[in-house]
Amino acid sequence: MQEELMVEKIKKSYPYVDIIFGTHTLQNLPENIYKNMEKNEKVRDILQMDGEIYEDLPIKRNSQFSASVTIMYGCNNFCTYCIVPYVRGRERSRKPEKILQEVKKLAENGYKEITLLGQNVNSYMVVEREKGLCKSEINSFAKLLYAVSKINGIEKINFISPHPKDFTDDVIEAIAKIDKISRIVHLPLQSGNSKVLKEMNRKYTKEQYLELVDKMYKKIPNLSLSTDIIVGFPGEKDEEFEDTLDVVRKVNFEQIFMFIYSPREGTVASRREDQIPEKIKHERFNRLKELYEAKVDENNEKYIGTIHKILIEGNSKNDDKMLTGRTKTNKVVIFEPNQNCEIGKIVDVKITQTHKWYLRGIII
Question: What domains lie within the chain, and their CATH numbers?
Answer without folding.
Answer: 4-45 (no CATH), 66-299 (3.80.30.20), 307-363 (2.40.50.140)
